[in-house]
Amino acid sequence: MDVCFVIQQRLKELGLEQRDLAAAAEVTESYISQLLTRKKAPPAADRTDLYDKMNAFLKLPKGQLSAMVRAQRHEELKKKLADPPAPLFQEVRELVIRKCAKEKQAQILVIFGQQSFGELERLVTQKLLDVTQGIARDELTNESWLRSAAKQRRESYEELRALILEFLDTDVLDLTAAHCAAFLEPILDWWDIELKNFTMEIALNKRLASARVVRFEFVEMRSSLSSKEEAGFKEFLRNVTLSGDATKEELEFLENLRFKEQRPSALYYYRELQSLRDPLHFPETHSESMHKRRDGTESEKQSQIQSRKKAIRRWARNHNPSNGGRMKPN
Question: Is this prediction's pTM over 0.85?
């Protein structure tokens, strides 16, 4: 069933207006109107808090709207994937290239120009979108940031929330020049990619993001036996002489060790355990534990102080000049 139809019917049943729903969802009435008239596609359920607010306001079963939206978007996605990807808006491609590191711009421009929306252009644009949406998603729950940003943009709090919700629902195929102007342009400083291994770095505006540079690496992973399947580790566990005093954390560390070709024995795991415990291998951890032991509890400290005082008094009595420096008998 169409989610917009369900919302409209529920509003009618409860005798409510679109503006009431907009106020409950903390967005503009215009946003709700476009949503219910299908001029705007329902946003993805996992990218927004919109449906939780609507669900509660419309007194619908928990999660009903989100489930309906997921099913509806799934069908729409299958139709979209059946068609070849359309090229990006020219303004979007220009922004992506302009934000690229200057020494790579010419090379990237040539590669992008070979196809309307090729693999590299999709990869780069998707990562830029992911990072930018991540920042927008974090700030969506920051009311003070939203009100401050809305004031700077000369918009209302509800207008900015609606704008962010729309942007969070945007995928790489629907990215527009307006999205670029509102989010990608101010948040992104530059990006760079190593074409040999596709390692990518994205630098962010330090005034708008907590992280300065985000790095993505694409690494080849070779399949191997997990440590649970290692015969040597199983034998190590069975032999209580070797593994009997190992802690849960130590066993977890040994269990997660990976090997490509050679298969380790039970003795290897025992020696690895001793190496893990050797304080010379982890001097900072060892010094911290020694410091804690020296500190002891407060009662132990007081006991030590009293013991020292008694020892000093005994020494003073035994070395009193009036005794001629002779030791007093105990």
Answer: no
